[in-house]
């Protein structure tokens, strides 16, 4: 085997090894919400891959929420969703998706689970999750990053939140939308109250002047005839 061929074979082996080592980095429950801001309402998507070594289907997912005031799940065929609420405050503590008979996330597949909620006013929000399989196996995704850096074996799904409009601002805009822009002709200007009085006075003076002028003309015409 030539030196060139050996070099190519070594490069291919290194590439394969790198891909195999990188697989666990993305093969975990992942949360995403583009544009999510602190204290804002957002649609959060949880990407759930099937990691069962035996090929058993994922049949249940429970996501712990940061005690959000309100939340709504998206309709997902083949799955039911249940919100766990605090009896006193009404805050939503978690959501559990359960596969119906004959459904689930099979081998070499992943599922997307969406929920709309108001996020807390914080830089980062975490969603500890539990993934359950048909064979009774449970994997908990709740580990924080290790102190020395890198990634935990079962990292907790989390979001980095940006800054944006406050909840009060969102409420104002949702109930008091900006006026629509029309492409039609511009409406006539509306005069101020003071302008109405000035306009009326000018009209009275103008009418009086015309009346005096008319009387003068009548008198002068009568004198000429006489």
Automatic annotation (TrEMBL):
Question: Cross-referenced Gene3D superfamilies, in alphabetical order?
Answer: Uncharacterised protein YcnI-like PF07987, DUF1775
Describe the location of the YncI copper-binding domain by residue ranges.
Answer: 28-161
Q: Where is the signal peptide?
A: 1-22
List, as start-end ranges, the regions of compositional bias called Low complexity. Answer: 179-192
Q: Does the keyword Signal apply?
A: yes
What keywords are assigned to this protein? Signal
Q: Where is this region: Disordered?
A: 136-193
Q: Which domain of life is it from?
A: Bacteria
Pfam families tied to this protein: DUF1775 (PF07987)
- Name recorded for this polypeptide: Nuclear export factor GLE1
